[in-house]
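Example: Iron-sulfur cluster carrier protein.
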Amino acid sequence: MKRQKMYTSENILSGKQNSNIADNLKNVKHRIIVMSGKGGVGKSTVATHLASSLAHRGFQVGLLDGDIHGPSVPKMYGINAAATGEKRKGLDPFKVTDNLKIMSIELLVNSNDTPVIWRGPVKIRVIRQFLQDVKWGSLDFLIVDLPPGTGDEALTIAKFMPECDGVIIVTTPQEVALNSVIKSINFARSLKLPVLGLVENMSSATCNICHNRIDLFSSGAVVDTCKKYNIPLIARLPLENEISRNADKGSVSSYAQKTSQWTECFRNIVDIVAEIDTR
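Written out as C-alpha cells, the predicted fold is:
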C-alpha cells in the first residue's frame, strides 16, 4: 500500500513562500501573538482591546483573526461579514478606523452562519495567504489572535511569521485552564518565541452591594505558574459585565477609551506592548 504523504506547515510552506511572507510584512515594525491553551478564556477580548488601545494611542495597527473555525473579531467590531465582503477587493483588510485594520476568514465567507469545514492543508494555505497576500501596508503593530491550542493555525503563524516580538498568553484561574496554558508556554519556547507575560482574565468580580472583591475561581495558581516558569504576570483582569456586552454589540473599539476597573488593569498590557516601539 502506498504511504499517504503527511502534510505539515513545514512541507506546505516552501522557502520561496517564506520569502514572500517576509517581503509582504517588511513594513510591519512589530508582531505580537495572543494565544491561549484552551477556548473561552477571553483571548479574543484581550487581542481586540489591545489592538484598539494601541490604535487610540496613535499607532498604526493591524489585527489578524487566526481562528479559521470560530472567528469572532469581526462581530466584536460590529462588522457584518456578508455585507462587507461585497465592498472589499481581494485580500484588502477591513478598515475599522484610520489607525486600525482587521482581517478574518469571516470577511471572506458568504454568510456569518457559514461553517468552515476544512482539513489541515487547506487551513494552512489560507493562513499562508493571510501572511503573504493581505495588503497590510505600513504598520507599527500587527496583532495576531490565534485560535485555542497548539494545532495547525497556531504552528503555521508562529513558525512562519518573521521576527515575532512576543507572545501574550491568556488564561483564567482554574486549574483546567492552567494545564493548557503550560502547553502554550512550552509551545512558545520550543519555537523560540519570547513570552511577554501571562494575563489572568476573569480574575475576580466586585459585589454590587458590598463592593468587596469576589474570587470566582481558586486563586494563586496563576501566580505560582508564573514563578515556576519565570514569566511575568502582566495583568489580572476582573470580570466586568460591560466588557461582554460591548463585544456582543460590536463596540470594542469605543470601550478602549473608557475608564473602568477593567481598563485600568488592562493598561499595563498596552504599556508593555507600546514600549516595544521605543526599544
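The two ends are 56 Å apart (CA to CA).
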